[in-house]
Amino acid sequence: MDGFADNFMIAFVLFMLCNFISRLINEKANKKLEPEQKLILLELFSGDRTIRFGLLIAIMVLYFAILRFTNLNPEITYTAYIVILTLFVIVTGFRSYIKLKNNSFSASYIRSYITSTTISFAGMIIFLLAII
Q1: Between the CA of residue 26 and those of 31, 83, 108, what are the distances in Å?
Q2: Cα separation values, 15 from 50, 53, 103, Å
Q3: Per-residue pLDDT averaged across 119-126, rounded?
Q4: What is the pLDDT of residues 15-47, one digit of tens each?
Q5: CA dist., res. 116 & res. 125, Å (int)
Q6: Each residue of 44-83: b (16+ CB within 10 Å) or e?
Q7: CA–CA distance from 113 to each of 54, 56, 74, 104, 106 (Å)?
Q8: CA 15 to centroid of chain Cα atoms
């Protein structure tokens, strides 16, 4: 294997591991919720998922379009892409935090949510930085 393939495989395994750990934390926290809190949680974030996923796709399409159809320096474009993704995760995480806080979710659940989101985000950043 060449260096890129090795880096890609390691980065991918770390990305998957971070997402696995994130899901474990999230599922453990969800099990502690009352049934009515679980319903509130579904209602709070059901509409946001589609919008967030659409925005993420738009960011990715924009990144690849800039790489393909402009003469911008790829390193600058990649750096901007990572910065935009970071801002996207921070803004969506903050909005989620506010929603949970405003709907009286416990501090321990909110802490678990933030930890889970941070671990998942760290996996994404590790992956993106490792494949440079």
Answers
A1: 9, 26, 11
A2: 22, 18, 31
A3: 89
A4: 999 999 999 999 999 999 999 999 999 999 888
A5: 14
A6: eeeeeeeebeeeeeeeeeebeebeeeeeeeeeebbeebbe
A7: 22, 20, 34, 14, 11
A8: 11
| Token representation of residue 101 | 């806080």
Query: Which residue from 132, 121, 128 is spatially nearest to 82, judged by alpha carbons?
Result: 128
Six-digit token string for 94: 């903050």
Both tokens assigned to 57? 């796709």
Return the SS3 of 2: coil
Matching residue, tokens 């802490």: 111
User: Which ranges constitute the DSSP H helices of the chain?
Assistant: 3-31, 35-69, 74-102, 107-130
Single-letter residue type at 116: S
pLDDT of residue 4: 67
* Exposed / middle / buried, residue 2 (Cβ in 10 Å: 0-12, 13-18, 19+): exposed
Estimate the crossing angle of helix 107-130 against helix 74-102, to 10 degrees.
170
108: Cβ–Cβ under 8 A, 6 or more apart, which residues? 29, 32
pLDDT band at residue 60 under the 50/70/90 scheme? confident
